[in-house]
Amino acid sequence: MRDGNDGGEEVMDIRDYDEGASSVLQLRGRLDAGTAGAVEAKLTAMAGLGRPLVIDLGELSYISSIGLRVLLQAAKRAQAAKLGFALAAPQPPVKEVFHITGLDGILTIHDDLADALGKAE
Amino acid sequence: MLTLPEELLLLAHQEDSGSFDLPGNVLDLALAAAVLMDLALRDRIDTDLERGVIINAAPTGEAVLDKELARLQAQQDIESLAEWLNLVADDGADIKEGSIARLIERGVLHQKADRFLWVFETRRYPLIDGQQLDEVTARILAILTNDDIPDPRDIVIIALAHTCGLTERLIAEHELTEEEEAHAQARVEQIVRIDLVGRAMRVLLDDLQAALFLTSSPI
């Protein structure tokens, strides 16, 4: 067992932009204990915008349990605010995590970003 | 806020006997799962499908959790979640006693010593203040009777309660309509599929449920 972040690099590129009526948060890299705080802060700030939110997971390579909780909390906040929320384009390893953990039964996940944008609004 | 082991014990509490309706053969592992889930929710550990890492070894202020966090920290050679579970489960009796002591300290339960056949001392734990139990059950029932996205904490306590055969009792004890009851059962099935801590935890919870078919007497 090791302290820290599984020995992996704590790398996460976070980019946000508007697409139509939605806001998009693009995550690139690893969403784990080392990066979850920054993503959560960004999601909290974006929740205040009052726009549907799509999380683009197309370049997310890894997600741990703390990352799952951050996304779950964001979805819960969006639901409480009656705003659309969707996850988009997870790569197979991340998609498998959503499936095995059962979160694909609770969260809206689209294989395609354009599809997610169309449904989130 | 109660710890998850405390919430689990409280959900299993039987007022008439002052005991806990948790089968002895699954108790240690269920409490170990509760400890690890609580440490995850307090951002002390992080996990993926197979492994766990300590991300913050700072004490939580809860003696039961902090003891197990220190034991995990001391075992630098293990990192699989299954090994973590077994390590913590080895301390199941202490987790149970420590959690009951904390519930007494919080004023939720009190301890009463009795004698069985005038010889054997037995301990019962009558409820003093039902507010905490009411809050936990209300939280769970609210999630089971609507379609809101559940909070991570609610997901784990429902999974633990279901594993220990407690959700059936909870649903039965409350006056739900037939429709609400069917909805609640479906929500339980949906929520217990969610595993925010790791595949080993899912396997464990499934195993514990299987063990309930071979259940022993309440503790």
Q: Mind describing the biggest β-sheet of chain A?
A: 5 strands, mixed
Count of strand segments of chain B: 6
* Mean pLDDT value of chain A: 89
> What is the N-to-C order of secondary-structure elements of chain B (H for helix, E for strand)?
HEEHEEHHHEEHHHHH
Strand order of the largest sheet of chain B: 1-2
Beta fraction of the residues of chain B?
Answer: 5-15%
Question: Could you name the ranges of chain B where pLDDT drops below 50 across 5 or more consecutive residues?
Answer: 215-219
H/E order of the elements of chain A?
EEHEHEHEH
Count of helix runs of chain B: 10
Features:
heterodimer, A: 121 residues, alpha/beta, Transcription Regulator spoIIAA, 5-stranded mixed sheet, 5 strands, globular, disordered N terminus, B: mainly alpha, two-stranded antiparallel sheet, 57% helix, disordered C terminus
Description:
The complex is a heterodimer of chains A (121) and B (219). With 121 residues, chain A is of the alpha/beta class. Chain A is built from four helices and five strands, in the order ββαβαβαβα. A five-stranded mixed β-sheet of chain A has the order 1-2-3-4-5. Mean pLDDT of chain A is 89; it is low at 1-8. Chain B is mainly alpha-helical and 219 residues long. Chain B is built from ten helices and six strands, in the order H-E-E-H-E-E-H-H-H-E-E-H-H-H-H-H. Chain B has helices at residues 4-11, 24-41, 63-74, 81-89, 92-105, 131-145, 152-163, 166-173, 178-192, 199-212; strands spanning 13-14, 19-20, 45-47, 52-54, 112-116, 120-124. In chain B, strand 5 (112-116) and strand 6 form a beta hairpin. In chain B, helix 2 (24-41) crosses helix 5. The radius of gyration of chain B is 17 Å and the shape is globular. The two termini of chain B are 24 Å apart. Chain A binds chain B through residues 1-6, 32-33, 62-66, 68-69, 72-73, 75-76, 79, 97, 100-103, 105-107, and chain B through 40-41, 43, 46-49, 51-55, 57, 72, 75-79, 148-152, 190, 193-199, 202.
